[in-house]
Design brief:
This protein is mainly beta. The chain is built from two helices and 31 strands. This is Vegetative incompatibility protein HET-E-1.
Amino acid sequence: MRNHKKLLQFLRPDPAVAATSEDGCSPLPSPTTTSGSASTSATASPSPYVASPWVNLPGLGAGAALTAGAADETGLLGSFVKEDGHVYSLAAAGDLLYTGTDSKNVRVWRDRREFAGFQCGSGLVKAIVVAGDGRIYTGHQDGKIRVWRASADDPAVHKRVGSLPKLGDFLRSSVRPSHYIETRRRHSSVWLRHFDAVSCLSLDADAGLLYSGSWDRTFKVWRVSDSRCLESVRAHDDAVNTVAAAGFDALAFTGSADGTVKVWRREDGKGGATRHVMERVLRKGESAVTAIAVAAEARVVYVASSDGAVTHWQWRRGADRESAPRNGGALRGHKMAVLSLAVAGRVVVSGSADRTISVWRRDEGADHSRLAVLSGHTGPVKCVAMDEEESVDADGHRRWVVYSGSLDGSVKVWRVSDAPGAMTARTPAHVWKGTPSPLGAWTPYRAPERS
C-alpha cells in the first residue's frame, strides 16, 4: 500500500471523534482535542481523559514541524507515549494507524491524535491486519481471532462483526468426537480453534485467505469471504511465532521458536478447499525465528531470528519447484534479538530487543545498504510497519514512513530518506548463493521462551 497522504495526516490537526463499541465489547473513552487544537467535533462529548498521555504527541506539537530544509532528512517525526501498557502490534492502513497493547485495547490514530478505539473482553492484542474491504482482524493471547469493522455512518465507531471460527461452525464441530484433537496430556480441543495464544496473522488478498499462527504449534487457513476454517496444520515442534503469505507461487512461510522456517505450498481443491504441503525446510538453527517479511515483487524472503541476524533468500522466476532458493547471507545490524520486520519496495526495516531500528535498502544482487539506525525507544521494539511516500524530494530521493511500537509503551513515527548522506553501511554479500549460509558462522543469542 502506498499513500503519500499518510505522513501528512500525522502533521495536520483534525477534530477528534467519539468512539463506541457493541457486541459485548467495551467502548474506549472518547478522545478530545487539547486547548491548542483548531476545533472540536460537534458530536464529541467532554471526556475525563483529556489529560491522557495518548492525547498529546511529543514532537508533533507547535514548533516541532519539520522545516522545509529538514523535511527530507531521516529522523523522528513524533511519538505516541502511553504511561502503562506494552505495544505488541500495529498496522497502517491509509491515513489510519492501529495499535494493540496488553491492556486489551486497539486504538486508532489519525491526524496526530487518537481517532477511535475498541476493547475486547480478554486477551492482549498480539497481531493486527487490515483487509482491503475495511475489516480488521486481531489475534489475541486467549487464542481468539476477532473481526471488526468501522461504521459506514461514522468511521470513528468500530464494531465487532464476528470472530474466527464462527460460533455456528464451532458448535457444529464440538458435537463431533472426530473433530477433537489432543492438545496436552488428558486435554483435547476442537481443531477449528487455537487453544493457545494467536501470535501472528497474515493476509493473502489475492487468494482471499487469512493465515493465523499460534503458540499451539499450528497454523490455520481461513477463507475471508465466509470466515470458514479450511485447514489446520501442525507445523512445528514449538510455538509458531510468525507466518507470512508469500504473494507468489502459492507459497506461505512459518517460523518457530524451534529454530526452523518451513515453506508451504498451497494446493487448491474442489469447493474452495485448500491443502498446504510442506515443500522444504528453509532454515534450521538453535536461535528462535521471530519474524518473516516478504518482498513479493522481488520474490525475496527475510527471516529475523533471536541471534540478531536477518537472513534472506530469493526465489528465481520461472524456476521449477525442486530448485532451491538462493541464499543472500545475513544482515547484521543489531546486538540483540530481532523481534520485528517490515518490507516496502526495496526497503526492509528490522526492530530489535536492543531498542534500535535498522533500515536497509536492497541494491543489485544480494547487496544491501543500511540507510539508517533509528534510536529513541527505551524498550525492545516489538513491532514495525512502513510505507513509501509517493512523492520524492527535489533531488529525486525517495522517502519512507516507518512506524515502530515498543514494550516501553510508545509508538514512534519516523521518516527515512535514501539520500546519499543517510547511508551508513553496506553488507558484505555481493551475490546470491545457491545454498544456505553455514549455521556455524552465526552467533547465537539466547531468546525469551516465546516472543
